[in-house]
Design goal:
Layout: E1 34-38, E2 41-44, H1 45-69, H2 78-88, H3 91-115, H4 121-136, H5 147-164, H6 168-189, E3 195-207, H7 221-239, H8 244-251, H9 255-258, E4 263-268, H10 274-281, E5 288-294, E6 297-310, H11 313-334, E7 337-339, H12 358-369
Antiparallel strand pairs: 1-2, 1-7, 3-4, 3-6, 5-6
Helix pairs in contact: 1-2, 1-3, 1-5, 3-6, 4-6, 7-8
Length: about 375
């Protein structure tokens, strides 16, 4: 199914097998003033700073790995490399993201204990092995016997210790949170239905941003007026008896569906952006409705059919992840989260891009220039 500008944004997994964007951190016994408290449990400033340094070091390692995988041509992974660089160059924004993740993890540990779903030591060990299997391309079953893999693991831990100030036992404990997250995910996923309502509809989109229909930036008055004028034009042509398919092909800014007469095919309601889903859920069949506003623009919509359908494996994975993300969001909404006014004081800016080897820095400069 082609992803179009009416679909919700879904987290469908890692962009690259080597990515570990935000290393998890369970509660560590460290002194110091708190940058945040989660239901009364403090996150010490030093724990936060060591986490930031560890994440920064990991980003640098990922840039180096990307350089090696692409033979020095970072343009092959331009989007990913650019995101890593942007994070490294904005310590405050990265610090905010890291602290938000740490707050979430405190909530997961608190909730896991309440639900009796705490991970066992072997669960954390399995997560650690899977992580290093990805980095070394050595199967988990062969890691212990692989001298190269063991050398990589030792070097990785040494680098992480040097960059963050943590000791190996603390870093090893990081994998426990991923094991906990997996247990909670599996618990919630078991209750997710394996079938959902689906709708087949077609639409004419007058985008707020015709040059980039995926842009969800709120429209200016001029952009909104242009979309409204486009919709009036579409309505006028439909009123003269011109076919919906013909008007969609001529006017719709969703060019992927315009070539199909605006037909989106069968789409799960939960995969549709909220206002579009609300509009088509109970609309009369074969009746044009709208304009319906979504974050992408204004739509004229015709519902062709509805049904309940079994989820594919991909849809089920996406739905489970969506439920899990909503559950985590609800945990944050219900929690008492209090950040210190000076939480961002002294957020580490090291290690930095300048710490990369010269060839990697040169490749980054070529990427910026290109």
């Amino acid at each position: 199914m082609t992803r179009l500008p009416i679909l919700r944004q879904r987290h469908l997994g890692l962009l690259l097998a080597l990515v570990l964007l935000l290393l998890p951190l369970p509660v560590l016994a460290q002194d110091g003033d708190a940058v945040s408290t989660v239901n009364g449990e403090p996150i010490p400033r030093e724990a936060f700073h060591t986490r930031v340094r560890l994440v920064r070091w990991q980003y640098l390692k990922e840039l180096t790995t990307l350089y090696e995988l692409t033979g020095g041509n970072l343009a092959l992974g331009a989007g990913y490399a650019s995101r890593l660089v942007a994070n490294l160059e904005d310590p405050a924004a990265l610090g905010d993201a890291v602290l938000a993740e740490m707050e979430t993890e405190r909530l997961l540990w608190q909730t896991g204990e309440q639900m009796g779903l705490m991970p066992a030591a072997e669960d954390a060990e399995a997560r650690e092995a899977a992580f290093f299997s990805l980095w070394t391309n050595v199967p988990v079953s062969d890691l212990a016997a692989s001298a190269d893999a063991q050398a990589f693991i030792a070097d990785w831990y040494a680098g992480a210790e040097a960059a963050s100030g943590l000791v190996r036992d603390d870093i090893t404990a990081l994998f426990a949170t991923e094991a906990l997250r997996a247990r909670l995910y599996e618990h919630l996923a078991a209750s997710v239905p394996t079938e959902e309502p689906a709708v087949r509809s077609r639409h004419i989109l007058c985008s707020f941003h015709p040059q980039d229909v995926g842009d969800t930036t709120p429209p200016t008055a001029e952009e909104r007026a242009a979309a409204q004028s486009c919709i009036r034009g579409a309505q006028a042509r439909l009123a003269t008896g011109e076919s919906f398919a013909g008007v969609a092909a001529a006017l719709s800014d969703d060019r992927a569906s315009a070539s199909q007469g605006g037909d989106l095919g069968w789409v799960l309601l939960s995969f549709l952006t909220e206002s579009y889903a609300d509009a088509v859920r109970d609309a009369d069949l074969n009746t044009i409705i709208g304009p319906v506003e979504t974050e992408f623009g204004l739509h004229l919509i015709e519902v062709l059919d509805r049904r309940v359908q079994e989820l594919t494996a991909e849809e089920l994975d996406a739905t489970r992840q969506g439920y899990f993300d909503l559950w985590i969001a609800s945990l944050r909404e219900d929690a008492t989260l209090t950040r210190a006014p000076d939480w961002d004081a002294g957020v580490p800016a090291e290690p930095a891009l300048a710490d990369l080897d010269a060839p990697v820095l040169e490749a980054l400069e070529r990427l910026r220039a290109g």
